[in-house]
Design goal:
alpha/beta, FAD/NAD(P)-binding domain, seven-stranded mixed beta sheet, six-stranded mixed beta sheet, binds flavin-adenine dinucleotide
């Protein structure tokens, strides 16, 4: 596609990754971000093999690996020690693993890739609305100096789960999850086996995650660990001294190894931040001169740890579609072909599995503890679970080709050709 003037609303994972990929193709990019400066606040995330393939495609995987923590498997156990989650990455993709990352590192990696590129930044700029025309789109935004308009050939909506910019007529579901989590980033956990995302369950109403998170660019020697504790959404704002003391007691009794670490590193509720989730389902992700990506397009519970990876895959898919299409209808057809099957699969799985881990149901917790260990005894199911976690599924019987995703863009527009 000829050089396009592209406005990206939101400089999170989806927005930054799209800026990198589309600027490399020679397009003219302006990023609008409501925060006055790039914020590095956010829970640790697990980059899956699918997200790592996009990092390889962008040429930034090495920087990420220098700071991130190698994660080889996910293990979830009950207080009795029953393993109800037991997925090793190598079962899905030989040689593959996950990468635990701090949000500051994720942002650093994407900003490094943008270094030296001709991308304009509008920080402290809140986009209020978008108008789609036949031959372009207009952005209405405001900053400390007042209200402004920006004319673009294409506008990408990448402003997260609570987006009010996604076209309402494309949305078929947009609702808050009844559960969320409190999370903290803490000094490294040495009490539990390294290189594992550890999860701990008691019924469906108690869940804790402990994720190796690697280091941040400012302190590369200090290894960190993220801690997640699941809570009903209405309990998130009541996480105070008494709740933390009761929780520490509970963890010490049920999972003493984790309790030893927590007693060593947790002293105050102020170390935690709340996270709320949304479930957003859209009939389509693009049309006319507007595209929607990342959580704005398909927010889901982080139970399967796919959000950042899906945002990266969106950016990759958009790059492929821009490169291979001559007009906008063809662009959206290609984009949907690349993204819809995978998004549908993960939204279905996430919605089906989350109540087994985050609900008040006694039956679902019991069913999980009885059935899931048996599932892992069946080699085919164990492999399918590992593939699901790895982010490579594109339907019950289809998979993404990670090597094809990781391949550099030999056919990408060179900036000189693009400008003509
Ligand atoms: C507790 C928790 C744990 C998670 N763990 C994982 C994990 O292990 N693995 C994983 O893959 N995913 C995980 N996720 C999900 C992941 O964080 C999200 O899916 C991902 O960050 C989505 O990226 P995004 O770019 O779409 O949106 P965001 O990261 O939300 O970025 C949106 C950006 O848009 C800006 N913005 C908003 N409105 C406007 C506006 N009107 N104008 C201009 N700018 C605007 C915001 O300031 C922000 O910078 C987790 C989420 C939570 C809450």
């Amino acid at each position: 596609m000829q050089r396009q003037r592209i406005a990206i609303c939101g400089a999170g994972t989806a927005g930054l990754a799209s800026a990198v990929i589309l600027a490399r193709q020679g397009h003219d990019i302006t990023l609008f971000e409501q925060s006055p400066a790039m914020e590095n606040v956010g829970a640790g995330i697990l980059l899956q093999p699918s997200g790592m393939a996009v990092f390889r495609h962008m040429g930034v995987l090495d920087i990420a690996q220098d700071l991130g923590a190698h994660v080889s498997a996910l293990r979830g156990r009950t207080a009795r020690g029953t393993l109800v989650v037991n997925s090793a990455y190598h079962e899905a993709c030989p040689q593959q693993h996950g990468l635990g990352l701090h949000r500051a590192t994720l942002c650093h990696v994407l900003m490094q890739a943008l270094n030296g590129m001709n991308v304009r930044w509008q920080m402290g700029a809140t986009v209020d609305s978008i108008t789609d025309h036949d031959d372009g789109a207009e952005l209405h935004w405001q900053d400390a100096h007042g209200s402004h308009r920006f004319a673009a050939d294409l506008v990408l909506v990448a402003n997260g789960a609570r987006s009010h910019l996604r076209p309402k007529e494309w949305v078929s579901l947009d609702k808050a999850y009844p559960w969320g989590a409190v999370w903290a980033i803490l000094p490294q956990c040495e009490e539990l086996e390294p290189k594992i995302l550890h999860q701990f369950f008691h019924g469906a109403s108690r869940m804790m995650g402990i994720l190796p998170t690697g280091a941040v660019p400012d302190a590369p020697q200090q290894q960190l660990t993220s801690l997640f504790w699941s809570l009903p959404a209405d309990a998130l704002e009541h996480w105070g001294e008494a709740e933390v003391a009761a929780w520490k007691n509970e963890v010490q009794q049920r999972w003493p190894e984790a309790g030893t670490w927590i007693n060593r590193v947790v002293s105050s509720p102020s170390q935690f931040l709340p996270a709320r989730y949304r479930d957003v389902v859209m009939r389509r992700f693009g049309g006319g001169r507007i595209g929607v990506m990342g959580d704005a397009a398909h927010a889901m519970s982080p139970q399967l740890g796919q959000g950042v990876n899906m945002a990266l895959l969106d950016a990759w898919a958009l790059g492929q579609a821009m490169q291979n299409s001559t007009d906008f209808p063809a662009l959206w057809a290609h984009y949907h072909q690349l993204r819809l099957p995978s998004v549908r699969f993960y939204q279905f799985m996430s919605r089906g599995l989350t109540p087994f881990y985050q609900s008040h149901s006694k039956t679902l917790g019991l069913a999980r503890d009885l059935a899931f260990p048996w599932m892992y005894l069946l080699p085919w199911l164990r492999r399918e679970m590992a593939k699901t976690v790895s982010g490579v599924k594109a339907g019950p019987f289809r998979e993404l080709d990670l090597d094809a995703i990781a391949a550099p863009d030999s056919a990408a527009l060179k900036p000189a050709e693009a400008a003509s």
